[in-house]
Amino acid sequence: MAQRSPNGGGLSYLLINMGGMVSFGDTPSRNGTAGDVSPVDPTAPAVQQAAAWVVGLLSNPATAPLQIPSLVGALALTNISTASANSSSGLLTLTLLCTDDAQHRITIGAALLAAGSSFSLQAAWGTLAFTSASSDPQRGSQTTPGGATPADPASPAVQQAAAFAIASANDPSSPTVVPFQSGTLVLANVTNATQQVAAGMVYGITLTATDASGHVFKLTAKVWAPSGSSSTPSLVLESLAGSVTLVAPGPGGLGNATRVDPTSPAVRAAAAFAVAQANAPAWAPKAGPLALVSVPLARQQPADGGSVVYDVVMVLVDTRQNTLQGAAKVWVNAAAGTTTMLAFTFSSA
């Protein structure tokens, strides 16, 4: 996510900044079907052909279904790290190690269907890592080599960056979406901070905030303060993620979590309930109702009284086409006829 002011516009692709790395991914077009997933020889000609097709597709701006943030020039495949196939859906999943013209290290995950020599990309995601010698086009060249170093959470610069992140979340016109925010967020404290020189300074901040309903939000923000002569630099919110606990305590007697089919009716019902809760009037998203796009991953835990707690990972979109990745913890007690949202973790794009 990139935001140059509290009321600035967002980018059209998913961008979550993580220090010296950006993550990217498209909205999955399908969840797939359950089936046996088995490894495939990465050196097999069919796998090599599929990998080359993915790299060619993502290198061409005219055909690429998503942008890779900060990509310079064309992709070059260096290695196929893993390959697997689903016997039921025919889905081939690859992990590709690539570089670009700036020698960024790019890891790409791709899921595709093959019909002879023809391919259909179902989803793509990955990370692009910066080295101290490379540059981020948004920030310019690194002015000092090295990674992030600890910063004083109480320093004026860190406090200013934290306040800017909260102001961005509160601005009705900003693309930043904080689920279950009731009223205005108020900064409680900054618990940790880092700083990294990058054509100015990038602050990584861990903070807590509260809203009008007393919800406690644990947030992580990355804020860039560009270098310049102004005593009040134009700050840029690069990412905001975190979690909110809605109900505590949850059920007792929790057992081990196991993965379940994300397309199952029970999982879809839990995800739909989570989205409905997110759209409730008390904390409806300022950018319009959220819509469930897909559920790529789900787990379940048995609890007391035969109840079940579902952890569902969701891809969501709002009416402005902002993308949100959410993970909800939903407690379903069939015997009591109740469904309860326990917690929600999110990252905005």
The CATH architecture designation of the largest domain is Roll
- What portion of residues belong to β-strands? 35-45%
Major sheet attributes: 10 strands, antiparallel
Q: Which series of helices and strands comes N to C? A: EEEHEEEEEEEHEEEEEHEEEE
Show the helix and strand layout.
Blueprint: E1 16-17, E2 21-25, E3 37-39, H1 45-59, E4 76-86, E5 92-99, E6 105-115, E7 118-129, E8 135-136, E9 140-141, E10 149-150, H2 156-170, E11 186-197, E12 200-210, E13 216-226, E14 236-245, E15 258-259, H3 265-278, E16 291-302, E17 308-317, E18 323-333, E19 338-348
Tell me what the structure shows.
Strands 10-11-12-13-14-19-18-17-16-15 form a ten-stranded antiparallel sheet, with helices on one face. The chain contains three helices and 19 strands. The longest helix has 15 residues, at 45-59. With 349 residues, the chain is mainly beta. Helix content is 13%, strand content 42%. The model is unreliable at 1-34, 130-138 and 140-145 (pLDDT under 50). It has three domains: 21-129, Roll (Nuclear Transport Factor 2, Chain: A), CATH 3.10.450.10; 147-242, Nuclear Transport Factor 2, Chain: A (Roll), CATH 3.10.450; 258-348, Nuclear Transport Factor 2, Chain: A (Roll). The termini are close together.
Salient structural properties:
349 residues, mainly beta, Nuclear Transport Factor 2, Chain: A, 3 domains, 10-stranded antiparallel beta sheet, 7-stranded antiparallel beta sheet, 3 helices, 19 strands, 42% strand, globular, disordered N terminus
